[in-house]
């Protein structure tokens, strides 16, 4: 009895000191990092794109910007962002079809255009992420750096997630935190659906970006887009039925620049109907047209 009391006291003290007890791994654990990454991809296999609205909050050394965001992100690297002020006025419209970047800055009365590079997309997101990686994160999936099989490792973390470490073939490293959905905890690992909680990419010792994903919830496929006048045929969803989870809160940070962008999803649907021209915009009148690249 004295031994049991001592062990109980030691455990209690450890919990009080650390704030929480270590979480045991699921009964069925992933044998390799690539097996876990394959299950992550399978979790989002039904997703072709996501559309919705969000609150954005951007912090930087230059100040703070808040507004409403209408977003559309479709595989592999097509995005559209419309940022609206709290008073309902359009502030920015960014489009990228994977090769062409365009951004209307209403306040500065300028229309930027150039290659769909990470640095150009960062003119709005403030985080230098390639288009395909941005689309992945917006739907809750971690972009995965190219690597050899021996370049990835996996270990269970007592805080309740798998820690996947990737050594890229391009002198970069990535850390991904994965956890099984609560209802899948006792399933065989090959049947588990995974949540992405954290992604950090570093190159040559410098953090390129750090993304934290939370408040996961299942959403449904968007309905067909119907012409209210009944002239045009309905536009069907851009993919099949899907009830995968989406992180309703995404925080993207660039540690060396102190840029911090938070997306709080208000409403979202999988596989939205795609209207022709959604990822390109005409040049409006009364603005200055300027070509930009990574040197600007």
From TrEMBL:
Bilayer-crossing regions: none
Protein name in UniProt: DUF4292 domain-containing protein
InterPro entries assigned: LolA/LolB/LppX (IPR029046)
Signal peptide from the UniProt entry: 1-22
Keywords from the UniProt entry: Signal
